[in-house]
Write a structure and sequence with these properties.
alpha+beta, 6 helices
C-alpha cells in the first residue's frame, strides 16, 4: 500500500509539473508523461483473437492525431493514438516508439486525422460537473457547440459473450464487441440525456418544438444520423 501511494504521488506531481510547462514543448511533455507512468501498456493488439469479432478500440490500428493538455490552448505535435472504448483508456505512442496511458482527467481534447477527416473529442466528467450523466472522465465526440449549448456523443463498447449452440457438434459462436451510444445536451444550466427521435427533441427544447419539427421537415434532417443531428442543433442556434 505504501509503495502504491508513493507511485501515485510521484505520478501526480510529475503530471502537475508537466501541465505547468510551456504548451509549445508538448513533445517533451509527452515524453515525460510516458516516462513517469508506471503502467505503460506497450503496444495494443488490434487483431481479432480468441474467437472474438472486433476490438475494443475506437478505430483499428494506431491513428495519427494530437492531444491538448488541460487549460493549454495549443495541441501537441503529432502522435499515434489508440483509444480503448471498453476501459476508457487513451494510449499514446511517441515518435520513438514509447507508449503510455494518458489520464483523461488531465486531457482537454484530442483530434484524430482519419481518412481525410478530423475527429474531435473532448474529455468531460458530466456526473461530477453537472450532477447527471456517466460517472468519471469519458471521451465525448462533439456534435455541436454553440455559445452556451453543447451536444455530446458518448460511444462505448462492451464484449457480448456468446454461448454454445446445437450446431454441428456444439460449435461456439465468437464473442462480439458491440458499440453502445448515448447523447448528452448541455443547455447552459444542466445536462440532459438526448433520445434520437422527434418527440424527445421537442420535449428537450419545448420553446423550440415547432421550429424543430419545421426544420426536420424542410431540411430533410435524418435525426438518427449523428452529423445530421448536429446540423439540426446548429440550425436551432440561429432560428
Amino acid at each position: 500500500m505504501k509503495k502504491n501511494f508513493h507511485i501515485l504521488a510521484f505520478l501526480f506531481f510529475g503530471i502537475s509539473s508537466l501541465l505547468a510547462q510551456d504548451p509549445m514543448k508538448t513533445q517533451e511533455n509527452l515524453n515525460r508523461l510516458s516516462a513517469i507512468n508506471p503502467n505503460s501498456p506497450g503496444f495494443p493488439t488490434f487483431s481479432n483473437v480468441d474467437r472474438t469479432e472486433g476490438t475494443p478500440f475506437l478505430l483499428n490500428g494506431w491513428q495519427e492525431g494530437q492531444v491538448r493538455f488541460g487549460q493549454n490552448q495549443k495541441y501537441s505535435s503529432n502522435v499515434e493514438i489508440a483509444f480503448n472504448m471498453e476501459k476508457d483508456q487513451l494510449i499514446i505512442q511517441l515518435s520513438d516508439g514509447k507508449a503510455g496511458y494518458f489520464p483523461l482527467q488531465y486531457l482537454h481534447s484530442m483530434r484524430i486525422f482519419h481518412e481525410g477527416d478530423t475527429l474531435y473529442y473532448e474529455a468531460h466528467n458530466l456526473k461530477k460537473d453537472y450532477g447527471k450523466g456517466p460517472i468519471g472522465y469519458k471521451l465525448y465526440k462533439v456534435l455541436f457547440q454553440g455559445e452556451e449549448n453543447l451536444l455530446l456523443h458518448y460511444p462505448r463498447k462492451f464484449l457480448r459473450k456468446e454461448k454454445y449452440v446445437e450446431n454441428l457438434g456444439m460449435v461456439r459462436r465468437p464473442d462480439i464487441y458491440q458499440q453502445m451510444n448515448s447523447y448528452w445536451y448541455y443547455n447552459g444550466k444542466e445536462v440532459v440525456e438526448v433520445k434520437k427521435n422527434l418527440k424527445a427533441l421537442q420535449k428537450l427544447i419545448p420553446r423550440k418544438a415547432a421550429t424543430i419539427k419545421r426544420l426536420v421537415k424542410k431540411e430533410k434532417i435524418n435525426i438518427k444520423n449523428n452529423q445530421e443531428l448536429g446540423r439540426l442543433f446548429a440550425l436551432l442556434e440561429t432560428s
